[in-house]
Design brief:
Blueprint lengths: L1 H57 L9 H30 L6 E5 H11 L1 H6 L3 E3 L8 E5 H17 L6 E8 L3 E8 L21 H6 L6 H11 L4 E6 L3 E9 L2
Parallel strand pairs: 2-4
Antiparallel strand pairs: 1-3, 4-5, 5-7, 6-7
Helix pairs in contact: 1-2, 2-7, 3-5, 5-7
The protein binds adenosine-5'-diphosphate.
Adenosine-5'-diphosphate binds next to α5 and α7.
């Protein structure tokens, strides 16, 4: 009698575990379906644009000097868009497959911020946005995957410029704390309405699709950032106010 009860309990527990597994598999399948749907939707727009311009050029516009250069420039912009999407998808795929292969070393965060800011020199001048380095003077060592944190900084700073206002700024503030360093990337741009903040890190989510596309955004930048920081065991916080600006804050461990 006692044995039968024990067996029944075991079967009940096994059934619960299996049910949980089925639920997780269903969730993953739904997520995969949605992701593939989003990817093909994102690729369609630039591909159809390219097709449209090439057909128009072949149908005679090629010999019309008033439009041929314009159509070729638009074709080129759509190709750049496709490349940006593929690059970001590739980065996400690599991050997922290399999840356990973080290359953590000790390095100076101030030096990396300087390097990343320098790569935005031309873009920031074009948009008349001032890049402000941290005020700290002596090196601040951290222990993390340098390439991946470089990508995090690149994406935050790129967004600060993309969604910044003319004659605005993007600044980086470093707080040297015990055991960790806190990094803030702040802009005084268009800001984000509170209701959109919980969805910002979802793949392909954008507050204003038009503006993001116009600026060459793919909707994947913050998803990549979240992935990297989670793999490092860190969180990211957002403080933003519409028409005032945005702050992204995250921590990195010290050696
Ligand atoms: P995107 O390629 O569209 O910039 P991201 O994943 O980097 O994609 O960001 C998602 C969305 O979050 C953006 O489309 C934009 O609406 C919003 N966003 C991100 N950073 C900022 C910022 N600094 N200021 C205002 N909005 C931002």
């Amino acid at each position: 009698m006692k044995n039968l009860k024990k067996k029944k309990k075991k079967i009940y527990i096994l059934k619960q575990i299996k049910q949980q597994e089925i639920k997780a598999l269903k969730r993953a399948a739904k997520y995969r379906r949605e992701f593939l749907g989003n990817v093909s939707h994102e690729l369609k727009t630039p591909i159809f644009n390219i097709q449209g311009y090439v057909h128009t050029l072949l149908d005679g516009a090629l010999n019309d000097d008033s439009v041929n250069k314009k159509y070729l420039e638009r074709t080129s912009k759509s190709i750049e868009r496709l490349i940006a999407i593929i690059d970001d998808l590739d980065a996400l795929a690599r991050l997922e497959s290399d999840e356990l292969k973080l290359d953590k070393t000790s390095w100076d965060i101030l030096e990396l911020i300087k390097e990343v800011f320098e790569s935005f020199e031309v873009k920031s001048i074009k948009k008349d946005i001032k890049l402000m380095l941290p005020k700290n003077k002596t090196p601040i060592m951290v222990f993390a995957d340098r390439n991946q944190i470089s990508q995090v900084l690149y994406n935050f700073i790129s967004n600060g410029i993309k969604y910044g206002k003319k004659s605005g700024y993007v600044k980086c503030v470093i707080e040297n704390k015990e055991g960790q360093v806190s990094v803030t990337i702040q802009d005084n741009g268009i800001g984000i309405d509170e209701k959109n903040i919980p969805r910002l890190f979802e793949r392909f989510y954008r507050v204003d699709k038009g503006r993001s596309r116009e600026e060459g955004g793919t909707g994947l930048g913050l998803a990549i950032v979240k992935h990297i920081l989670e793999t490092h065991g860190e969180e990211v916080n957002v403080v933003s106010k519409q028409n005032t600006g945005t702050k992204f804050i995250f921590s990195i461990k010290k050696p």
